[in-house]
Amino acid sequence: MFKKIETINGFVVDLACLRVWPQDEIWERAKNHSRECSLQGHHIESGFALVQDNWDIALLDSSATPLVIDALQQSGNETGIRLRVEREMEYDEMKSILITESL
Question: Which of 69, 79, 88, 90 is the most exposed place for a label (fewest CB within 10 A)?
Answer without folding.
Answer: 90
